[in-house]
Amino acid sequence: MSKDAQKQQQQEQDEAENIKTIKRSVITLRLAIFVDTANMFMLLPNYAIMADSTANPESFASTHPFNFASATYFIPMTALFGVAIASLLTGSISDRIGRKPVILFCLAGSTLGSIAKWFCRRSFWLFCAANFVNGLLSGSLPVALAYLSDIFPDEEAMQREFSLASACYVLGQGGGTIFAVAMYPLGLFAPLWLGAGCMFAVCCLCFQYLIDPKELSCGNGKEPNEENDHDDEEIEERWEEDFLPPVIDKIVPYLIIIGGIVNTFGSRALYPLCVAPLAFNVFYKDYTVNGEPPILSLRVYQLLLVFIPFMVVPSALVAPVLYRKIGYGITCILGNIFTGVLTIVLIMITKITPQNTWTAVGFAAALHIGFPLSALSHLTTSPMLDIISPDNKKGFFQGIYATSLNLTFAVAPLCLGLLSDATSIYTALWVGAGITFSAAFINAPLLLKHEFQPSQGDSIDKRSFGQSAMMASFVG
Q1: Nearest-10 Cα torsion for 37, 40, 42, 44
Q2: Each residue of 50-103: pLDDT tens digit?
Q3: If DSSP states are collapsed to H, E and C, what string results for 202-269?
Q4: How deeply is 413 buried, as exposed, middle or buried, from its count of CB atoms within 10 A (0-12, 13-18, 19+)?
Q5: What's this model's pTM, rounded to 2 decimal places?
Q6: CA distances for 441 relative to 188, 262, 396, 409, angstroms
Q7: Is residue 379 within 8 Å of 315, Cβ to Cβ?
Q8: How many CB atoms lie within 10 A of CB 247?
Q9: Using CA atoms, how far apart are residues 410 and 403, in angstroms rounded to an integer?
């Protein structure tokens, strides 16, 4: 065999080994996304039970100074604040020291955080403090998405991997809530040990099989540092001259972000407030405080929370069709309106007297059938930002939106919960519905933008659409 043939054969073997290594690494990363998300949502169905001192022997004895509704949402808010802070830092840190070390640190931190939360379970404030630290040690998801961008320079392959990562995220949300319901007989906080064990296992797998992108050519023939460098200052100088769209486009990205934030704030009245405290009170607590058998048991109530994340899947399937048929702007506004209308429908169902099993079934059916329609607005925001933003500002605007959304996720339920405790749950829900309708008003000018009009072409950026799917499932 000639030297050239031997060299070619060696190159083919190296390429095959490289592909095999990348495939194993990406599969490990998908598993990490699933497990990390499941661990994050492992206690979600139990928050309302934790905040009600009479619901379970392990419930917090006191949540002072919060009452039931505000305490229910202060618990997840502490974690979300930590996640929001971590998301601001982990991406830039991973740019400097590498993706793998940051991912490993986040996974190990979540493992220890789950254990710490179990030991702090006797005190509301200690648990919330541990929850915040756990969130602060999280933040692996943004780094995982950056990892995929590094590994797959080909746009089509990267979009496919982002879609699969979105699927792992949604499945992780549903899986976490299912684990919580299944382990409820073992205790409110028992899922923390399952989460810690799974996190430790996936951390070991990532240590063994996750390859840092800097160690691979990734099929593009160049190491990441060999790419043509751009002079950031020169790009910044050319921003005003070459990249900036017409005057209205300076405003539109911020208008989209503001509309998305307002819609997210109002949609927290639909979910989770319509489930807890509304459904929890109407179908369970209002009966148990009077010594009567409840319409829904705690196990059945928990099941209301299990399938909501999966309701984003129908939305994700129908959204691209709507973009082509009626456009992004109308799809977004319809999602805003559907959210407000569904909130009002659920309010009306709980006003029916007397309540019985059939009204509870109607409530659950309306929530699950209507939620995919309400999620359309969340799915639309990131693709619209991607369409309207100049290439060198897409990451900037997407980053602003993601950070603002994380903070809204954290603050909105607590604000509505405090309003509920101070007035009534129905007042908080009507306010939330009104806020979602105002989001439709804010988004109305988007109908005038030709970029958001119906198009028969497939111009959807699947990467930003995948990010929107994860955000929409997070709303669920």
Answers
A1: -120
A2: 999 888 999 999 999 998 888 988 998 898 888 878 877 887 788 788 889 989
A3: HHHHHHHHCCCHHHCCCCCCCCHHHCCCCCHHHHHHHHHHHHCCCHHHHHHHHHHHHHHHHHHHHHHH
A4: buried
A5: 0.75
A6: 42, 11, 25, 21
A7: yes
A8: 7
A9: 11
